[in-house]
Amino acid sequence: MKVLIASLLLVGTSALASDCNVNLKGDLSLERGILTVSTLDQRPLVLDGSSATYDGDSMSLSSSQQQLLNQYHQQVSELAPQVADIAMDAIALASEGINHAFGELLGYDDNLVLEFSDEMDALRNRVSTQLYADDGSIRFSSKNLKDDKLLGPQFEEEVEAKVKEMVARSMGSVMIAMGKQMLKSGGDMSGFEKRMENFGEQIEQRITAKAEVIEQRANGLCYDLTRLDDLEQQISREIPSLSGLDVVRVDAQHKLM
Length: 257
Prior knowledge:
By secondary structure, the chain is α+β, with helices and mostly antiparallel strands. The protein has one domain (2-254). The chain is 63% helix and 11% strand. It has a 6-stranded antiparallel β-sheet with strand order 6-5-4-3-2-7. It has a two-stranded antiparallel ribbon with strand order 1-8. Strand 2 and strand 3 form a beta hairpin. Helix 2 (63-106) packs antiparallel against helix 3, helix 2 runs parallel beside helix 5 and helix 3 packs antiparallel against helix 5. It starts with a helix and ends in a 7-residue tail after the last strand.
C-alpha cells in the first residue's frame, strides 16, 4: 500500500520538476499573434511578425533589424504552445494516476473517484482558459512563469495538494474496501496487499516514464528561453532604441554550449 501511495505523490511532482533559473524583468504577452513586450520602463514594444511599434510609434528599421524582431516574435510564438502542452499534459498525467489507482481500489464509478476527476477537469479548464483564447489560438503571458502559476512551485504544489487530499479523503473508503476483502478472504490479507503493491509498482513505472518525458520537455523550455535571452542581447546591440531590452535572463549554467 505504501508503494501505491508513494506513486501517487510522484505523479503530482516529478513531471513538473525543473531547475531552470529564469529571471524575468518585464512581461511577454502573446494573444492572437500579437506579441507585447513590456519592459521595466513601461514602454511597450508590440510585434506582429512583420512590423513593430515602440511606445505607440511605428519603428523605422532596416531589413536586418526588422528580421531580428520578426525572429523574436517567432521564437516567443513557438515557445507559447510548448508551455500550454506541458501544463495540460502534467495535469492529465496526475489525473490518470489517481483515477487508475483509486479506480482499482474503490471502483471507477466510486463517488470519490468521480469527484476527483471533476476537480482535475476544473483545474484543467482553468489552466486552459489561461493558455487558449476564445478562438482556440494560443495565448501566453510570462506572468504565469514569473508568478509560478504554470510549471513552477505554485502550480506544482496545487497538483500535489490535490493528490494528497485524495489520499487523505479516501482512507475511510479504502479501509472499508480492505475490510470487505478481509471478510472475503477469511482474514488473510496477504493476497490483497500483494496485488496492491504490484499495482502500485506498475503505476509508478508507467507514470515515471511519462513524467520523465514531460520533464525533458520542461527542461527544453530552458534552452528555448536561453535562445530568447541571447536574441534580446543581439537586438539591444543592433537596435539603439531597444538597447534596454532585457526581459529574459537565464542563469549562466543553462546557457547553450
